[in-house]
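Form 7-S
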Amino acid sequence: MLKCPTKYEEQIAIIQSRGCVIDDVDFCRSVLEKVNYYRLSAYFIPFKATEGKYQSGTDFKTIYRLYEFDRKLRSLIFTALEEVEVYLKSQISYYHAHEYGADGYLTTTPFISKHDHDKFLDKINELIRSNINAPFVKHHLKKYEGVFPVWAIMELFTFGMVSYFYADMPAKDKKFISRGLYGTHPKNVESWLYCCTVLRNICAHYGRLYYRVFTSVPANISGLDKNSERRLFGALMALRNLYPDKEKWNTEIVTALTALVEESQKEVNLWHIGFPKDWESLLLGQKGFTATTHS
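Output:
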């Protein structure tokens, strides 16, 4: 049986009964009005002492500040992921068009044997249908009978579709992309893309990054301990390795991240997001470089 809905006053009473200090009830209510209680409750997880009780001294304003830190963090990461996605769409579609022709992706030729081409085409048709009102989609449906060149159709791809497309490219093509863009082995890029796909989906759906354990571990990145590789920091290192402009990454992304961490240092436990002591140096690429291999 589902739980019964609770009013704001009841939600406040539940939070207090579990040992959380609320020194400003009006503030607490205003937060609950803006942020679903169910969503906010996830940020209490690190503070659980026993079933239904929080650690002594747990403060509601601390929980809210963690929520705000997470929100700002998602926004920053999403911006970086967007640049990776746009860059890879540009690079992969350019290579693919010149290697296989504008519509070569519609055949099975440019893909490995395990590629499920029918499923791939179904996904493309689904993307076209869901973007039917986009001007360039209307243009290709009307003028080219619904046939899109690879550089146009890839504009509809999600990050996950880009990752899937790369993973199903033949070895020679993946090597060309991975070596040319990142100077590393194709399997590394495939792993990093998968990690960033997971990260992107979390950010896109406003999911929690703080105190989250990731299922995927980025391949071949030195400087990560067991905690770092399974938490946000591992995914951030994968993102760093795929980011197209290292100077911009250092001066804009890492600088903004450092400022955000400093702003929230009283509330944030860096272990909960997998940040080691030398996290800034690692993200700047000053140590812990990814091993590169061309085998």
